[in-house]
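Internal tracking record. Fields below are filled automatically when a chain is submitted to the structure queue. Please do not edit lines marked as system-generated. If the sequence contains nonstandard residues, flag them in the REMARKS field before resubmitting.
Queue: standard
Priority: normal
Entity type: single polypeptide chain
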Amino acid sequence: MTVEGILCAQNGPIRAVLAAVHQRIGTQKFNAWFKSGTCVTLEKEVVKVGAANPFIAGWIESHFADDLAEATRSVTGRRGRVTVTVDPALSGQFRRRQLDLQATLVNRGTSGTARQAPAPSSRMRYKFEDFVTGSTNRLAYSAATAVAQSPKAPFNPLFIHGTCGVGKTHLLQAICSAVAKNNRNGKKTAWKYLTAEQFTNEFVRGIRQKTTETFRKTYRRLDILVIDDVHFLAAKKATQEEFLHTFNTIRDADKQIVMASDAHPRMLGRLTEQLISRFLSGMVVRIDPPDRDTRVRILQRLAGRMKTSAPQDVLDYIALHIHGSVRELEGALVKLAALADLAGEPITLDLARRVLADHLVRTDSAVTLGEIETAVSAFFGITPADIHSSRRTQTVSLARAVAMFLTRRHTRMSYPEIGRFTGKNHSSVVLAVQRVEKMLDENRTCRWMTPAGPKNMPAKKLIDMLADQIGKKPKR
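SYSTEM-GENERATED OUTPUT FOLLOWS
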């Protein structure tokens, strides 16, 4: 049996957990996110989810972590701790129908037309003391702590952006955790944390149930409003207008707004200029993937939390070869610890080299592709699920071609590998890359549609902007 087969072998308890998840979320969502392309295991009340790409990993972590934890409670009697990591070995298992279903559910979820997002939670998972700082995130950390410690921070709003898994949500929830702690000590501050998706769905529900006044009072009287995944407001014209009024009311009252997004405000497609100008009026700070020293300290923290005895040379080896998100660092450590346990061996550098060699190369490629898809989809105002789908609108087709071109230019992935990760065949990737190359060679202009009408930009400028967004120096 392969390594992946051993880790994905579903024993009685995990089958029961998955059955409970199925019952909680329904057949449609279960088939879209868990039927294939994911690997779920249960080890000592820790639910470990491997996902085919960073987008799916992030979506499961954001939307189904509580369902997985509670399903574990129903089976084992204790609420499970959920870890979600990227496992590129799972790529290529999707059928087009499943990819299209994911895209449909994501777009429905962000428009509030079919699925109600879970209610905003008052229980925050993250705290400042658990955040590992380094050169790439220290400014964002300092800004977040300043907001949490002072009722009138020197910047408002605070807008944090960066690719998936670099700590944006951690900082946002840490602010709320600190405020909640102060509240328990007698200092009352009205705060709320939620995603832009949840804000959208609550607004739509308020319109349908004729409770918009209650909705507005709830949000416009807050001392601190914390909104995650702001890029999901893209193309939601009515919600953007409502959020603009909420934003103005809170800031005019000298109260605080904190936001996070996958991209810089200027790189968010389909947002109104009014919102963009307000996002830029405060402090905009970027978090980049952790540097090597920070990755080592993150791994030390993870090993301690997992109660895993990993020698320092093993942690140094993982940190040297994985340059992406915390999620990918955790994935490598989880895989190594699981296989060492199965084999009854201690964790050694030799074991790490044997077990993780292929995993590290594939994960590095997958993470880079995930960063590219995140940046491209945010720029065009679509979702990564749209890129993976079979949709062929002008905007989606251009975004898909640009993502494939950037992946081919800035990663070591071959055409077949790119196709496997995006759910396309080899020839589709070749044609998409050639399409963009031709546009660059002929100095053509890219054109796409937005709710406000058509947009256009020289192909070279567009490619250079996106290359800079993903931290790659534009090629001349």
